[in-house]
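Figure 6 in text form: structure in, sequence out.
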C-alpha cells in the first residue's frame, strides 16, 4: 500500500512512517519545517522522501496527518480536494498494533523512557518491534512483540488494543483536548480496559488508583500496598539502585541503573515486571539495565569545555521538576541553569504557578517566547512566557541572539528543556562558549 504522512517530521508521525515502511509499504510525507529535525534520522536512513510543497499524488494513496495540521492547512485541503482516502493517525496505529503481541506504554509522563527500557530488554533477548515517540520506529514481521508508546494526546490511544499495558501515571495535561482530570482519567480507563491480558499500573498515583479496571491488573510503586514494591532505593552521583519485590516470589532482585531520579526507578520497575512476565531471567534483566542508554532528548548529556549541557524533552511542570532533581543528583556541587522553551499557550496559562515552582529549583532560569505550532495566540490574549518569568526570582527571557547572557557561567550545568526544538539554542550557546576568553 501507499501512505502519505502530513507532518512527517513530528515525533509520532515520523515513527509511524518508519513502521509503515518496514511493513513493506511505499511511504512519503510532507512537512512545513525544512530544517533538519532529530526525528527525521530514521526517515533518512530508509530513504523516505519528504516534500515541502504540493506535488502529484497517486489516487490509491492513503493519507494520514498530524493534529498540528488544522483543517484549513493548504496541504490537507489539497489532498481532500483530490478525493484521497484520509485516515486518522490513531486508526492506522491501531491496525498495526493488532498485527503483533503489543505492550502499550501510556502515562502523562515517562512513556518514552519506560518504552525505551522495555525495548532494550526485549530487543536483546527475544527481539522486538517498537514505536517510541522520540522518532524511533522499527518492525520485523517475524518478531512477536511490539513495544508501543501510547499517547493520550487527542485521545489517540483509545484506538489501541494492546496485549499488555503499562500506565506510568495520570496527571492534568493537554488542557486544549481535555475538560479536566476526570476526562483524562476516563480516557486512560478506556485504554486500560481495551488491553487484552494485563495492565501494570503505578499504584502510587492517586488518579491511577481511581481507574475501574475490567482487565486484570497489578499495581507497582514505592508504597507497601502495591503488588510490585520498590524498596531500598538509592540515588547516587553515578546512577540509581533498588530492590524489587513481586507477588508469589517476595524479593525478586536488586537492580542498578545508569539513570537518575526516582521517576526512572519507577519506570524501570514497570519495564522489569513486563520482562519478567514474558520469561526473561532476573540476572539477564539486571545485566541489560546496566547497559541501557535513554531515548533521544531524555536527559542527554554533552560536555562542552567546562559546561555540562543537558538536553531534555521535559515540558510539563512535573517533568521539569524531575529533570532538575535528577541533575542535582548527578551534579550536586555544580550551579544549575534551566533554559525552558514553553510549547503551548494553553499549558502556559493552566500551569503558570506549577511552572514557577518547578523552574525555581534551578539556580538561574531563562525562558524563550512560547514556541507553538498548533494553537493560535489570538485565542490566548495576554498569555506569554513573561507570566512565568515574573514569578521567578532573577529569571529572564532569552533568545538565540541573547545566549551571551550565559558567557560568564563556568563549571555549570545548563539544562535545555522543552518538547519544541532546542537545537538552535544549544548551537548558539556552543558558539558563546567557543568565544569565551
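Output sequence:
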Amino acid at each position: 500500500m501507499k501512505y502519505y504522512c502530513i507532518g512527517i517530521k513530528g515525533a509520532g508521525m515520523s515513527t509511524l512512517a518508519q513502521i509503515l515502511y518496514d511493513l513493506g509499504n511505499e511511504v512519503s510525507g510532507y512537512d512545513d519545517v525544512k530544517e533538519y529535525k532529530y526525528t527525521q534520522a530514521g526517515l533518512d536512513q530508509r530513504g523516505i522522501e519528504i516534500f515541502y510543497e504540493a506535488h502529484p499524488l497517486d489516487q490509491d494513496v492513503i493519507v494520514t496527518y498530524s493534529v498540528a495540521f488544522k483543517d484549513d492547512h493548504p496541504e490537507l485541503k489539497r489532498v481532500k480536494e483530490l478525493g484521497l482516502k484520509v485516515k486518522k493517525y490513531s486508526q492506522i496505529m491501531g491496525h498495526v498494533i493488532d498485527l503483533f503481541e503489543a505492550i502499550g506504554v501510556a502515562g502523562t509522563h515517562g512513556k518514552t523512557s519506560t518504552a525505551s527500557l522495555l525495548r532494550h530488554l526485549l530487543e536483546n533477548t527475544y527481539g522486538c518491534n517498537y514505536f517510541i515517540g522520540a522518532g524511533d520506529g522499527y518492525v520485523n514481521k517475524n518478531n512477536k512483540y511490539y513495544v508501543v508508546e501510547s499517547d493520550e494526546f487527542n485521545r489517540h490511544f483509545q484506538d489501541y488494543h494492546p496485549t499488555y499495558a503499562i500506565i506510568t501515571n495520570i496527571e492534568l495535561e493537554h488542557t486544549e483536548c481535555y475538560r479536566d482530570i476526570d476526562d483524562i482519567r476516563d480516557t486512560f480507563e478506556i485504554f486500560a480496559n481495551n488491553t487484552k491480558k494485563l495492565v501494570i499500573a503505578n499504584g502510587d498515583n492517586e488518579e491511577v488508583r481511581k481507574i475501574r479496571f475490567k482487565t486484570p491488573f497489578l499495581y507497582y510503586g514505592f508504597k507497601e500496598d502495591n503488588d510490585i514494591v520498590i524498596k531500598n532505593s538509592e540515588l547516587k552521583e553515578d546512577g540509581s539502585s533498588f530492590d524489587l519485590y513481586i507477588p508469589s516470589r517476595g524479593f525478586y532482585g536488586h537492580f542498578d541503573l545508569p539513570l537518575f531520579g526516582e521517576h526512572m526507578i519507577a519506570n524501570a520497575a514497570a519495564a522489569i515486571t513486563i520482562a519478567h512476565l514474558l520469561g526473561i531471567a532476573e540476572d539477564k534483566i539486571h545485566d541489560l539495565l546496566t547497559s541501557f542508554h535513554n531515548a533521544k532528548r531524555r536527559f542527554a548529556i554533552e560536555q562542552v569545555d567546562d559546561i555540562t549541557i543537558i538536553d531534555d524533552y521535559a515540558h510539563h511542570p512535573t517533568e521539569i521538576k524531575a529533570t532538575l532533581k535528577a541533575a542535582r543528583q548527578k551534579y550536586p556541587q555544580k550551579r544549575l541553569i534551566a533554559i525552558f522553551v514553553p510549547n503551548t499557550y494553553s499549558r502556559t496559562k493552566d500551569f503558570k504557578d506549577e511552572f514557577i515552582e518547578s523552574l525555581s529549583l534551578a539556580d538561574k532560569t531563562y525562558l524563550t517566547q512560547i514556541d507553538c505550532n498548533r494553537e493560535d495566540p489570538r485565542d490566548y490574549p495576554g498569555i506569554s512566557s513573561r507570566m512565568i518569568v515574573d514569578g521567578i526570582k532573577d529569571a529572564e527571557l532569552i533568545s538565540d541572539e541573547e545566549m551571551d547572557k550565559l558567557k560568564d557561567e563556568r563549571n555549570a550545568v545548563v539544562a535545555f528543556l522543552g518538547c519544541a526544538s532546542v537545537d538552535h539554542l544549544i548551537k548558539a550557546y556552543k558558539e558563546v562558549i567557543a568565544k569565551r576568553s
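Caption detail: The longest strand covers residues 228-236.
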